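@channel sequence for tomorrow's demo:
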Amino acid sequence: MRGILLPLRREKILLLADTHVGYEVELRRVKGINVMSQTQRLINGVVELVDYYGATSVVILGDVKHELPVPRESAEEVRIFLKAVAKKVPLILIPGNHDSLLHEIANGIEGVEIAPTRGILIKKFLLFHGHVKPAKEDLEKADTVVMGHTHPAVVLRDELGYAVKEPAILKITTSRAKICKALYDEPCKRRGRLKVVVLPASHPLITGVDVREIPQLAAEGRTFLKYVEWNPDNVEIYLPDFTFVGLLSDIINI
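structure tokens (generated this afternoon):
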């Protein structure tokens, strides 16, 4: 499972992104690929991480569900997923661009809270999906932004040339001032550097986008990463188990 723990004084918050419950519907409907439901596999993965870390709550950073525009075939799968996780620990959902009708689907499920789309600030950590502009006052207070949306992955090759793509976590150090100017057309009260952590997709069938391609895709798309400085020496790449792969500059020409 692909998540990180946010340890606070009295809480341990498990952060996940892009569970994309119901992704199998698109595979079947659009690509003609018949795949068994992955919902129970997702549930098992989240529960295992909660137990492993002793997490007191779970926050999903957007794209909880996948099916668009209206979740006809997968709505019940989403409800099953939310009920199972919320039965274990409190669950906070930050809506992403795939989360149409999420409020209606989650309505009445005990232990589930839906946060604002622009994200939430917990201590010095700003948590959001990454497809919309966060609140300026939250960005000013945050030391670290944690987001999803982009599905980063890294291609690993051995000495024989065999390659495999693995989900990855990115840690980017960037200028807060440049982001504020681009997003709000005015400076933030705080300057200095800002850390941006990008989580991989949690759905087991979604590997992700090669990190070497993300800067160009970010520049063309609707994402917070569009405003981040893509200095290859300031982008750290980790596997989901926190194995350090290297800097973007180390792999950019591989």
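heads up for whoever presents: The chain is about 25% helix and 25% strand.
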